[in-house]
């Protein structure tokens, strides 16, 4: 992972524990340049309280779990991003904190039960989190609470404060605003109960769509917030129509999203299929997409390629997250180049207005093989 040059520093406000905390950040993780004000608001309210069993949901790089660890035991930091999880682990170690870091969607209907109930849960949604997914995470966090536990949600109107407040009012036993600053509000909610005393578990968030690519019918399982959740995008379609996959090939769908390229490869050739994405919700959808298309493949949640270093590939198919920053793209394509077999091919699609020459410099040769109306397909080799 390509790190930021200097860590972010946060001074402590209690006598116990360290005098200050340091946090490493990186491209592709929210609030990489400055602490999230919502997280700071939650810390301000919580760091002189006894928190018991603590679980943070949707962590960026572990601020809440690390800073509050002196007031809680045990501490579990969860995030849907493998890249963020690596930063959380690094920052816990840097600050001498004993915490468990989990890559999880934050959705009980997908991840399953959290195990032992927690006394305190903290959730600060990202600005780009789809409200539907955020509300499902909020409800799952409520379901994880012990009987006298509390969930703290920090948000502002731009990140969905009104919708989150309404969802808590419908689901939680009690809801109150306990702190406000600079447009941010910290809400406190207590455990939900249904009429018969059972917890409320929302249904899984998955939707289904279909696509036909070069005469191959695909059944695709998507979820809110995933790239092209409403249906197969033009760039991915162009890449699938362009790439050559043969029987016996080892194929990697890198940045797989909901697994459309992996499913296509498995349908057009008798090949070995793997798929990888940074987002746990994407990989949960990709597993379901492969199953829906009777494709036998392995799907992993991973930051770029570390989780697939036990194999090399004849073909890598990649529609990269070009919005994630140069650091992410550099890591991604360095790993892809290393994962290719000697005569392997890496097929990359991107918007034709973008120049990815620097990011693709890890490859020995790169050529444009197809130019569409909006996208180009590049073929890279070692």
Automatic annotation (TrEMBL):
Domain Methyltransferase small: 21-187, 218-376
A Pfam family recorded for this sequence: MTS
Annotated protein name in UniProt: Methyltransferase
Keyword list, A-Z: Methyltransferase, Transferase
Coiled-coil annotated residue ranges, if any: none
UniProt-listed SUPFAM superfamilies: S-adenosyl-L-methionine-dependent methyltransferases (SSF53335)
GO molecular function: S-adenosylmethionine-dependent methyltransferase activity
BP GO terms, sorted: methylation
Organism this protein belongs to: Halosimplex rubrum
């Amino acid at each position: 992972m390509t790190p930021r040059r200097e860590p972010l520093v946060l001074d402590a406000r209690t006598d116990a524990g360290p005098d200050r905390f340091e946090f490493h950040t990186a491209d592709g993780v929210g609030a990489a340049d400055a602490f999230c004000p919502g997280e700071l608001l939650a810390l301000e309210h919580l760091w002189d309280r006894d928190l018991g069993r603590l679980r943070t949901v949707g962590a960026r790089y572990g601020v809440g779990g690390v800073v509050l660890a002196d007031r809680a035991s045990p501490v579990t930091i969860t995030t849907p991003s493998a890249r963020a999880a690596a930063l959380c682990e690094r920052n816990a170690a840097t600050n001498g904190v004993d915490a468990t870091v989990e890559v999880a969607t934050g959705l009980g209907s997908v991840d399953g039960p959290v195990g032992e109930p927690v006394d305190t849960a903290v959730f600060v949604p990202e600005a780009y989190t789809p409200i539907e997914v955020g509300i499902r995470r909020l409800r799952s966090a409520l379901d994880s609470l012990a009987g006298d536990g509390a969930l703290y949600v920090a948000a502002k109107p731009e990140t969905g404060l009104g919708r989150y407040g309404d969802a808590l009012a419908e689901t939680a036993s009690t809801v109150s605003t306990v702190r406000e600053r600079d447009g941010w509000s910290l809400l406190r909610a207590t455990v939900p109960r249904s009429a018969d005393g059972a917890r409320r578990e929302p249904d899984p968030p998955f939707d289904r769509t279909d696509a036909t690519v070069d005469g191959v019918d695909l059944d695709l399982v998507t979820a809110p917030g995933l790239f092209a959740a409403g249906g197969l995008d033009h760039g991915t379609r162009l890449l699938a129509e362009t790439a050559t996959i043969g029987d016996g090939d080892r194929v990697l769908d890198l940045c797989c999203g909901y697994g459309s390229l992996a499913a296509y490869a498995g349908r057009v050739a008798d090949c070995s299929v793997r798929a990888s994405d940074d987002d746990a919700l994407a990989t949960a959808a990709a597993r379901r997409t492969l199953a829906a298309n009777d494709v036998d493949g392995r799907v992993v949640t991973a930051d770029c390629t570390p989780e697939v270093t036990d194999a090399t590939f004849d073909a890598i198919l990649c529609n990269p997250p070009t919005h994630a920053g140069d650091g992410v793209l550099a890591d991604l394509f360095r790993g892809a180049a290393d994962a290719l077999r000697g005569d392997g091919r890496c097929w990359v699609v991107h918007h034709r207005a973008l120049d990815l020459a620097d990011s693709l410099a890890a490859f020995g040769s790169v050529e444009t093989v197809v130019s569409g109306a909006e996208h180009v397909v590049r073929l890279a080799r070692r």
